[in-house]
Amino acid sequence: MTHPMHPDQVATPPQLVRRLVDEQFPHWADRPLTRIRHAGTDHDVHRLGDDLVVRLPVVAWATDQAELERRWLPVLAPHLPLAVPTHRATGRPDHGYPFTWSVWDWLPGRSVDGRLDDAAADALAGFRDALHAVPTDVAPPRRPHSRGGPLAELDDEVQPAIRRVGDLVDAPRTLALWAEAVQAPRWTDDVWLHGDLLPGNVLADEDRLSAVIDWGCLTTGDPAADLVAGWHLFDGPQRRRFLGDADDAAAARARGWVISQAVIALPYYRDTNPGIVAQSLRALAAVLS
């Protein structure tokens, strides 16, 4: 990015990452290091050789994500039909970089973009259903205001955000759909949630979905929170295929999750992350269509 996305963003130039890796994990010092350009918002990513990736938080609120993934992905992975990241090492703060950082296996494939086909809709729906079926008896408690809770928790933030971005969206229609989502009947049982099934977090390899990455929003809660991919990745027929047997209440809440994420992101990243802005506008247009 040309400008930092966050007021307190920490820089991770390649020379710093090289020094951290070489000193803390000298057995990987001979591996080439390549910065990965992406539209993510909370980590910088550097590929380490052919089969590893270094992830470094760039803002303090993202610092607990790697530990969340390290603890729970081994529990979930055996139940899932698509690959998920495997943790290899944890690095410590040093040389002015203030956060714990991590090394993971590199998963082959490309981040999906655009509208996916029937096979992809079936594959991602199968992944979602498998994740939601994993027992939650040992799951950590949901954090307040995290993904998957009652949308009413976000109402005081979302309504003003919709009005702020009214020049970019149909604000009255968006407010009406948001109100419908907030008022929709509550779900019955909490399930495991990825919490961020957006284009950059779903990988395809040889034209088939292969992996789901970036589990920093992992939690338990409303299954509708994992239906957001329906508007981010699919057009009408494929969206209906992906949504499956979701009832009207779940679909309404899912639209609410799309709206809340998009309208909060738009003003925050408007001048610093064009990828997130474009992604948010596409999803909102799909919700409003």
TrEMBL record:
Residues 39-251 form the Aminoglycoside phosphotransferase domain. Signal peptide: none annotated. Pfam families: APH. Coiled coil: none annotated. It comes from the Bacteria. PANTHER family: AMINOGLYCOSIDE PHOSPHOTRANSFERASE-RELATED-RELATED, BIFUNCTIONAL AAC_APH. This is Phosphotransferase. It comes from Klenkia terrae.
